[in-house]
Automatic annotation (TrEMBL):
PANTHER family: ACYL-COA N-ACYLTRANSFERASES (NAT) SUPERFAMILY PROTEIN, N-ACETYLTRANSFERASE DOMAIN-CONTAINING PROTEIN. Transmembrane segments: none annotated. It comes from Clostridium diolis. It comes from the Bacteria. GO terms for molecular function: acyltransferase activity, transferring groups other than amino-acyl groups. Coiled coil: none annotated. This is GCN5 family N-acetyltransferase. Residues 7-160 form the N-acetyltransferase domain. InterPro entries: Acyl_CoA_acyltransferase, GNAT_dom. It holds the Pfam family Acetyltransf_4. Signal peptide: none annotated.
Length: 164
């Protein structure tokens, strides 16, 4: 578990599946996120494979005062590089939580994995996520054109990174 103040980041447990499923709704994820799981059963089957904790992909639960406020996604897709994604519930955005969470996970990754580069991306219209990324030390590198599909259309994203 990764902890700072009242924020905890931990691996997913079976009891978290209902929360994850709730986070995979457009209402919870907000205006800029796509979502993956079509059914609760599919989510369960995916969890049963490896508990969302493999050497290639991880989902981590983010809690504040023992309540889930978000999910962290880690994709170890190339040697030395991890791509992260953070989804906070809409009522936990714009309260400073995102910056604390990103700082925690960046420090943890660099200290515990042979990673030299952490990447993140965000919709070009998601100003809050852009500010959080920059406050956590990520630099904007460019635009990924037509990179995200949500609300029925493709959207451009900014790509950010932080180097060890």
């Amino acid at each position: 578990m990764i902890t700072e103040g009242d924020i905890n980041i931990r691996t997913i447990e079976e009891r978290d599946l209902k929360v994850i499923y709730k986070f995979n709704s457009q209402k919870t994820r907000g205006n800029y996120q796509e979502f993956q799981f079509e059914s609760f059963r599919k989510l369960q089957l995916e969890y049963e494979k490896d508990g969302f904790c493999s050497s290639e992909f991880q989902i981590l639960n983010v809690e504040k005062e023992e309540q889930t406020i978000g999910l962290l996604y880690l994709s170890f897709y190339r040697q030395g590089i991890v791509r992260i994604g953070l989804v906070l519930s809409s009522d936990n955005c714009n309260k400073g939580n995102g910056t604390v969470i990103l700082n925690l996970i960046v420090k943890y990754i660099f200290e515990n994995y042979p990673i030299v580069r952490i990447e993140a991306d965000t919709d070009v219209e998601n100003i809050i996520a852009q500010k959080v990324s920059q406050k956590a030390g990520f630099l904007r590198e460019g635009i990924l054109r037509k990179y995200r599909y949500h609300h029925g259309t493709y959207h451009d994203s900014y790509i950010y990174s932080i180097i060890k």
